[in-house]
Design brief:
The complex is a heterodimer of chains A (663) and B (263). Chain A is of the alpha/beta class and 663 residues long. Chain A is built from 22 helices and 31 strands. The N terminus and C terminus of chain A are likely disordered. In chain B, β1 and β2 form a beta hairpin. The chains are: A alpha/beta (663), B alpha/beta (263).
Chain lengths: 663, 263
């Protein structure tokens, strides 16, 4: 990486200060440090009920001693299943305090998945939230001889249950208090016996094939992640966070356990799964971490509500948003914001942004990130226009959650930012993203082969193989392309992901469908279907008359418009894998023509077969393709269509210029 | 089980020349779920209305823990621990769910208009206590999300649940449900069935319900009373009642019943 890398800060020390190197030790320290400050909050009976760090610690201690009195041994696994509630984190920390390992299970898992994870992890204890989860466990408990106790939190509906393994949370805590009276120093000893390299959690990841794999993560892994992330994305003890994604997921573990314990900020648990948005609004969190669908959802909700609101509010929205977008775009491009625009933005904040953010619970947000999948630039722009500093993060379970993040104002739609301190990223010869840090996991539980495959020792130690294809930009930003197995190669061996490029193209409002070709060919080419709605509207606004889809798609002006869009996408692609030529198809791809699946995915093979003449032209000399096609309508009728398709070449000069610029 | 909590004795109800209920007697055991079933026009809702005090029967007695209710007004019966829901939802549609439930607490309000009008003092404490009861019911019926929603804007199945919530806000000893699952989809029915069972088991409330769906009746109730043309034709545990030829006849028609008996 270049020397001027602004993000090359020193990594957090490998050994944490004062020996606070496990979760239970941190909890005990926080109980001393913060005492009566609020650690957890849960909305119950319509009121946010607070739990102080001291109470948090005491619950965990009692439960932990209770588990000890029930016979938990160091290294035993404790499976936990339930919605996000204080009891979930108590259970995890109690298990760890007794030297055990926490195994989170997704609350909406099927019976088979629940049984598999409990069986594979050899869990001796299961902590289940309520009747729904207890029912799942009891259904399969005959097949799980290792399970000794099932601890439940919410007794509702369980009054007639008589299974000998069942025991309530309260009963376990009571046993713990009894044990504390008999041997007062026991828990402190048990906590002190914990080591940074002890296993903290086994995080089961849903593989696309076969059964989930259990990633073993140590306290060192989890805490070094939290410490290093905190160096570029600082969280403060006074921060608020709303925990609403499954606690079995590494991202939620990272925020609600590692980061909260390391920093001391407050975790808020929603009242019910369907009150999350309302609860976020009430809390007004400083830190938010959510997958793209949440952000997309907020964005589209706002758009819809603006349509339905009063004329005055709609007027304000239309008045202020362009100012927000202008400021956001300038910041994205690294351009200065002139003073007049700055004042206008301030005014917009007074008139609109502040009120809108308050509605969404985003008024106080300082650190907010999206991860897991790509988020469209429009959604990014929307939040930045409001002044919500949304950023992309990247990582996987095997590296304790996060390896890369956008830092500060350095936000780009197509990258996932730079490695966090203490993390090295490198691209293998095959184009795979490899990473190395203190947070890389200890291996998959009971799966040597998978562990070897993920941690293939390389020059200078083991690198984590992500299975993702990607590349680094000149200034050190990581771009994730696709899963390795979906990546293709050009004739010269350059890797590219058709799906990645297609998605970027489809982020344009004018592109409905895109098919990118290039496998074993000299360059990339694209077949685009225009979006009749938006392009039609654009044509109307530009006084461009057209008759049919085919007619509109053949207009030189429309080609010009789409040319700009493709050129824009090209700027975000590596120079060797840019779109050189494209055509606008004379019809939309259609499931009735078997070109799309019913879930609207392009059937690549079929489409390439069907449009082979077009593809031949994309790689040939001719600039025109005569088309003589048969179109099938929904009612089964067919029509013959004759037209001439033009192949558009992206300006070679511009291409060369862009190459030079990227270099 | 101890003596009947609710006893209906020789109840007869007439509207002019029409006899809606003819000399009907049955007993509801404490802690039971008792279902009243019957074809359309059998007099089921009339029975519920007679018990809750909407209709005044010609003769007979309705005993709640030994006390005859027959001369009491509906609100006096409510105060003694009867609460009901209606076949056609009867909520304040323009008010929020929360306000509807708080109104359900009205019978438990002891403080007068003056104490209630002050921000501090016993009125405030009472209101807080009432809010707590209501919030527990909101939690129990899992309607946190719609706490502040206007009732009229809610889906039908949810309104039914809110109506149950308001009845529970009265903290009744006996809950009368008039077709709690009518017009619901399968999922909503399942939810409602679970809430009825939980109300009965966890809150210890005796439930008397009218229901058309025989599967629901067989699943939930511990006791079934069958009415036909205003008379009782069956009374007993669900399985026994289902096998009773008179009941089969009333439900299926005579020919079908014979076919069913043969088949």
């Amino acid at each position: 990486m270049p020397a001027d890398d602004q993000q090359a800060r020193a990594a957090a020390p490998v050994e944490r200060e004062d020996g606070r190197d496990t979760f239970p030790k941190l909890l005990a320290a926080n109980a001393e440090r913060f005492g009566a400050r609020t650690a957890l909050r849960e909305k119950d009976l319509g009121i946010w009920q607070a739990t102080t760090w001291r109470q948090y610690h005491d619950h965990v201690r009692d439960l932990s001693l209770g588990l000890i009195s029930l016979g938990i041994r160091r290294g035993d696994k404790v499976a936990i299943i339930g919605d996000n509630r204080p009891a979930w984190v108590y259970a995890e920390l109690a298990a760890q305090g007794a030297g055990g390992v926490s195994v989170g299970i997704y609350q909406d898992s099927s019976l088979t998945e629940v049984a598999y994870v409990i069986d594979h992890s050899e869990a001796a204890f299961v902590v289940a939230e309520d009747q729904e989860q207890v029912d799942k466990i009891l259904e399969v408990i005959e097949r799980l001889p290792r399970v000794r106790h099932v601890v439940y939190d919410d007794p509702r509906g369980l009054r007639h249950y008589r299974h000998p393994a069942l025991i309530s949370f309260q009963a376990v805590e009571e046993r713990g208090r009894e044990l504390a009276r008999e041997s007062p120093g026991l828990w402190a000893e048990s906590v002190a016996a914990g080591r940074a390299d002890d296993l903290a959690i086994i995080c089961y990841t849903s593989g696309t094939t076969g059964f989930p794999k259990g990633a073993m993560l140590t306290f060192r892994n989890l805490l070094s992640m939290a410490d290093n992330l905190n160096l570029v994305d600082a969280k403060l003890p006074a921060d608020e966070f709303v925990s609403f994604l499954p606690l079995a997921w590494i991202g939620e573990q990272m925020m609600s356990l590692s980061a909260s314990l390391a920093v001391g900020f407050t975790i808020n648990f929603p009242e019910a799964p369907d009150t999350v948005m309302e609860d976020i609004r009430e809390i007004g969190p400083h830190v938010i971490f959510a997958p793209p669908r949440i952000w997309e959802n907020i964005n589209s909700t706002v758009q819809v509500k603006i349509m339905d609101t009063t004329r005055f509010k709609r007027f304000m929205y239309r008045l202020c948003m362009p100012v927000g977008y202008e400021v956001a775009d300038r910041r994205f491009q690294g351009k200065p914001v002139p003073p007049a625009l700055r004042i206008a933005h301030r005014l917009g904040d007074w008139l609109l942004f502040r009120a809108l953010k308050d509605r969404l619970g985003l008024t106080r947000v300082r650190s907010c990130s999206t991860g897991g999948a790509a988020l469209g630039p429009d959604v990014f722009r929307f939040f930045h226009a409001l002044g919500v500093p949304l950023r992309q993060i990247y990582g996987q379970t095997e590296i304790s959650g996060i390896s890369c993040v956008h830092a500060g104002d350095d936000i780009r739609f197509h990258t996932v930012g730079r490695p966090i301190p203490g993390t090295e990223i490198r691209i293998s010869e095959r184009g795979e993203i490899l990473s190395r840090s203190a947070s890389v996991f200890a291996g998959y539980y009971k799966d040597e082969a998978a562990t070897r495959a993920a941690l293939a020792p390389d020059a200078g130690g083991p690198w984590l193989h992500s299975g993702d294809a990607g590349y680094l930009t000149e200034d050190g930003h990581l771009v994730v392309i696709d899963r390795m197995k979906d990546v293709m190669q050009l004739a010269d061996g350059t890797t590219f992901s058709p799906q990645y490029v297609e998605n970027r193209l489809k982020f344009s409002p004018y592109v409905k469908e895109a098919v990118v070709i290039g496998k074993d060919r000299p360059y990339l080419a694209a077949m685009l279907c225009i979006d009749l709605g938006t392009v039609g509207k654009w044509a109307e606004n530009h006084k461009l008359a057209y008759t049919t889809y085919t007619d509109l798609a053949a207009k030189p002006e429309v080609y010009e418009l789409l040319h700009e869009e493709v050129a824009g996408v090209n700027e975000t692609l590596p120079a060797a894998a840019r779109i050189r030529r494209f055509v606008l198809l004379y019809k939309e791809l259609d499931a009735d023509d078997e070109e799309l699946t019913r879930t609207r995915k392009v059937r690549r093979g079929f489409v390439e077969q069907r449009y082979q003449e077009v593809i031949a032209a994309l790689y040939g000399e001719a600039r025109q393709v005569p088309i003589d096609a048969v179109i099938r309508f929904q009612d089964g009728k067919t029509a013959r269509l004759r037209t001439t398709l033009r192949v558009r070449e992206l300006d070679e000069v511009a291409l060369a210029g862009a190459e030079a610029g990227a270099r | 089980m101890d003596a009947a909590q609710l006893a209906v004795e020789s109840l007869t109800l007439r509207f002019g020349g029409v006899t809606a209920l003819r000399d009907v007697s049955f007993a509801v055991a404490r802690g039971s779920i008792t279902a009243i079933v019957g074809p359309n026009g059998a007099g089921k809702t009339s029975m519920l209305n007679a018990i809750s005090g909407v209709y005044r029967p010609r003769s007979g007695r309705i005993l709640l823990d030994g006390e005859d209710l027959i001369r009491l007004s509906p609100h006096a019966r409510t105060r003694r621990g009867l609460a009901r829901t209606f076949q056609n939802i009867a909520l304040f549609k323009g008010m929020t769910v929360l306000d509807n439930l708080l109104i359900g607490r009205h019978t438990h309000q002891r403080r007068g208009i003056f104490a209630g009008g002050l921000y501090y003092g016993p009125g405030a404490r009472e209101e807080q206590a009432n809010r707590l009861v209501v919030e527990e019911i909101i939690d129990f019926l899992e309607i946190q999300r719609i706490r502040k929603a206007i009732v009229g804007t809610l889906a039908y199945g949810l309104q039914k649940r809110v109506e149950l919530a308001r009845a529970l806000a009265l903290e009744p000893r006996i809950l009368l449900l008039d077709e709690p699952m009518a017009g619901m989809n399968a999922e909503e029915k399942e939810d409602m069935a679970r809430f009825v069972v939980d109300t009965n088991e966890d809150r210890g409330t005796t439930v008397v319900m009218i229901e058309h769906d025989m599967d629901v009746v067989m699943d939930l109730s511990s006791h079934v009373v069958v009415l036909n043309f205003g008379s009782k034709i069956g009374d007993g545990p669900p399985e026994a009642v289902r096998r009773d030829p008179r009941v089969q006849e009333a439900f299926l028609g005579q020919d079908d019943a014979e076919a069913a008996a043969e088949g």
